[in-house]
Structure formats: C-alpha cells, structure tokens
C-alpha cells in the first residue's frame, strides 16, 4: 500500500504541513487545489526528457491559466495524485526510478498492449488496472 506521506512528498507538499499525513488531509489539499509546482515536479520525475508531458494532465492553454492562479483544479489534482500513487507502487515493485519508468512507458500485454501511463491517465478504472498488474508483479501472480 502506498503511504499518503510518500505521495505528499512526491507532490512536493511541505513536510511541516498537514497536507498528506492522512488520506483525508491529502483529499482536502487536492480539493483546495494542488500547487502547479506539483505538476511540474511529477512531470519531470516521470518523464524528465519530455517538457510536453505535463500537458497530458492539463491542456497547454489551461496550464497557462493554472500557472497564473498557482493552483490546479480538483480534477487535475486527482489525476496527478492517481499517477503519483501508481508511480510509488511501481517504485516499490521495480526498486529504481529507471525501471519504474520503463514499466510505465512500455506497452503491456495485460493492458491490451497499451502503455500503463496512458491507462492510468485515462481514468480511475485505468489506475486500478495498472495497480492490479503491479500487485501481480509484486506478489507473484501472472503479470
């Protein structure tokens, strides 16, 4: 299981803030609007060589408005948090950032030959499918 404190750390939320100590505090922080810097941080972490990756979360024109407001919408923050949760699980399974990235950005047979990152970004059901694949890898079932 992914810790909410780990998710808050990946999102770059202040360590002294209550933002991620419990699931409800993280939910509240997402609802109020994650800082745009969290999107920048996660985009760079997952796809360090692709400056356009952040636009998978927020369209470019919307991104410019979010930068001016300094906050993501609740839906954008939820999508970002979903990806962070899967990232943390991938790290737990694969142990290195490079191996976790390789898993997320390579097509997978159990996902209809789609890339896990694309499936996770699509919706919560996609996130569950990818988490199921990772759980299978972690606990030794077919994956």
TrEMBL record:
InterPro entries according to UniProt: Antitox_Xre, Xre-like_HTH, Xre/MbcA/ParS-like_toxin-bd
Domain Antitoxin Xre/MbcA/ParS-like toxin-binding as annotated: residue spans: 90-140
Pfam families (alphabetical): Xre-like-HTH, Xre_MbcA_ParS_C
Domain named Antitoxin Xre-like helix-turn-helix: residues: 25-85
Protein name, as recorded: Antitoxin Xre-like helix-turn-helix domain-containing protein
Native species: Bosea vestrisii
């Amino acid at each position: 299981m992914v810790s909410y404190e780990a998710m808050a750390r990946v999102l770059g939320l202040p360590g002294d803030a209550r933002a991620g100590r419990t699931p409800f505090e993280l939910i509240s922080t997402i609802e109020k609007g994650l800082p745009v810097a969290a999107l920048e941080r996660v985009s760079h972490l997952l796809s360090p060589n692709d400056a356009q990756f952040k636009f998978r979360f927020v369209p470019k024109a919307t991104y410019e408005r979010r930068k001016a407001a300094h906050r993501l919408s609740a839906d954008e923050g939820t999508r970002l948090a979903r990806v962070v949760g899967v990232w943390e699980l991938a790290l737990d399974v694969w142990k290195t950032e490079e191996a976790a990235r390789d898993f997320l950005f390579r097509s997978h047979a159990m996902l209809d030959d789609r890339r896990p990152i694309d499936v996770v970004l699509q919706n919560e059901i996609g996130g569950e499918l990818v988490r199921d694949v990772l759980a299978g890898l972690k606990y030794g079932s077919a994956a």
